[in-house]
Amino acid sequence: MPESRNLAFVGLGVMGYPMAGHLVKAGHAVMVWNRTAARAEKWTGQHKGKAAASPRAAAAGADLVFLCVGNDDDVRSVVHGDNGVLAGMRKGAVLVDHTTASDTLARELAGACAAKGVAFLDAPVSGGQAGAKNGALTVMCGGDEATFAAARPVIDAYARACVLIGPTGSGQLAKMMNQICIAGVLQGLSEAINLGQKAGLDIEKVIGAISKGAAGSWQMDNRWKTMIAGQFEFGFAVNWMRKDLAMCLDVGEKTGARLPLTALVDQFYKHVQARGGGRWDTSALVQLLQRD
Questions:
Q1: What's the CA gap between 3 and 156, in Å, rounded?
Q2: Which of 60, 62, 161, 168 is nearest to 108 (CA)?
Q3: What is the set of domains in the chain, with CATH numbers?
Q4: Which DSSP category does 200 fall into?
Q5: Which candidate among 12, 20, 57, 285 keeps its CA 20 to 30 Å from the CA of 275?
Q6: Hey, is 6 helix, strand or coil?
Q7: 3 pLDDT tier (thresholds 50, 70, 90)
Q8: Are 78 and 95 in contact (CB under 8 A)?
Q9: In the annotation, is 50 catalytic?
Q10: Span between the terminal Cα atoms of the chain, in Å
């Protein structure tokens, strides 16, 4: 067990809620804040942590402050200003941002933290809601060795892998690579399932065979059943994937990295949104092929 620490966790969405819970189970003292206060009250009813009235109040006295919110603007709203976490953090504390955000924001935050004597780690996660609930997330970090060493024993409460990728922003860039891979795999899986269905094959038998070979993937193992059943009211929302792919395409433009498949699948997701599927799971790509 790691040494018990005073922690703050800001953002109790589908990911942050169980992540903060794992910190309590690991023996840490956790103060939470959430934009919707009822969500924080529900969390404190299930765990031994406390709820704060503001991000600043949550961060006061904390050794490490964790963020897990929606996008760049959401992060800025809870970090800066009189009620932001930086206003409450003590010198020598560590700010860990688990939000999937831009690498530009990561470097911006690192500068703001340095000016306050606070260390910073950009640390987006992969593994989805199930990974958060089971404490089996993959965490990709950007920052320096000393900050990573301070944060890792605590992060291990909800991670099966926690890796320092490189300097500030590297974690967010690694997460972009992760999202590109997921989008491409889901499009290929969607087309394969659609072909099999149109050809009259027993999809369960086919998946049972090909999932054991080179075509196997997490998406295949965990999404094929819901895809053929047309069930998408769960999981990682299309709206969030489009947010992530937009960042990928922006970095591609800035660096000269060609991302033709990413751009194509992003447009497919745009069509899913137009059909009212913005909150559907990203596996809803198959629905574009199954419906005219």
A1: 12
A2: 168
A3: 6-167 (3.40.50.720), 173-290 (1.10.1040.10)
A4: T
A5: 12
A6: strand
A7: confident
A8: no
A9: no
A10: 55
